[in-house]
């Protein structure tokens, strides 16, 4: 196959104005952290320090919860749904207007390709605010019960893989339903959340409706433990999700947990094989595989395993790994040194377990955190690389002979977040979707997201749904005392 050279096509970073240091966003203003401590956030593609960010302690979280409570009781819970909706529409429009700025900043702080932050993350963020703006004055028609009322002050802790999109998934439904929020972005990716705080100011959102406290795990824990929080929404690792569930057991706090996954991407012998290969690439190499619903296990029907292996590796040889700001880049930087080390460790485990490792052999930049697209074949179900989330650009290939075996293998992990099916047969798609223990099942596609569609998992992938009408349920109470 001929290979083409691409001329560099870097997106300009002049569109973003990164400050040297950032405070916390509490009560509508940027304030210093009480203890005065700060941490640095770096560009994972270059290791360049982008900014210093305040680290919120317990007193800061307390101030943010009090600001949120004030805004809740005095303004936001009393406002009509139509008026709340106007603010959400305003936020959505500002995000669209500042889309390029958000996309470049997300790529700088996270390492994901600009093609993804520009074409996937930021448009979906705006779509989430538009969608929930539409619900704000129609909650009584959302089958949420006779008199849906807000829950109160919501604590939200989000991860680094889709920093702004996870913020949108959390903030938009909470505000639409009349709640106020205290949100903590991940330590390695705080910058777009802080730019969002500026959008809240620009939209003249009443002070205290959205509060953003930056910090690491201890800041998240302070939100979880704060008695003034009525509901928690968490996305991140299953380990931290379990700790949160233990911390709030016995309290009146409601919680939704969106945790890890180990999705099966199942390819039958009648599938359009080149489309399936594209679906596999999108399933596991999108966002460097830092995706909870990534198709990290390929289950391929034995009769086409060899052909799929050949076509997949040929396709991976064409992926461009490198500068995330280059519009030609397919696979960007790993988000942090810690995550890179986790991936490297799991890959060593896979080799020690006897699986066969292959990577694309592409050149990698010298500075920054990088990992080549990697395929493990000869993987068996008991291997850790078939059971545990790697959260990187690494896929494990297993085979099956019958649909029943595919279902049994697909369901054989502690997780249950998503799955993909590739086949020409509609009846088989419906049968498989019914059997698969996964919250989301894609057919002849993968990693498709839409604000109207509920997303969430079974088993150790967590509980609760985000998006769609179902996603509103977590943010309202209906009966007495509920
Ligand atoms: P987590 O530690 O779970 O981080 C998620 C969020 O929780 C971050 O904001 C984190 O803060 C915060 N946090 C950490 N400890 C906390 C605590 N005790 N109480 C409350 N909040 C706490 O995930 P990670 O370390 O970034 O990644 C570890 C693994 O988690 C990854 O390898 C991957 O497998 C998985 N992961 C899954 C997802 C999804 S979407 N399911 C997303 C990210 C990671 P800091 O980031 O500031 O520490």
How would you characterize the overall build of this protein?
It is built from 15 helices and 22 strands. The longest helix is centred in the first third of the chain and has 22 residues, at 114-135. The mean pLDDT is 96. It has a seven-stranded mixed β-sheet, with helices on both faces. Strands 9-8-7-10-11-21 form a six-stranded mixed β-sheet, with helices on both faces. α12 (384-387) links the parallel β15 and β16. It has 482 residues and is of the alpha/beta class. The chain is globular. It binds 7-thionicotinamide-adenine-dinucleotide phosphate. Residues 157-161, 184, 186-187, 216-217, 220-221, 224, 235-237, 240, 243-244, 259-260, 292, 342, 389, 391 line the site of 7-thionicotinamide-adenine-dinucleotide phosphate.
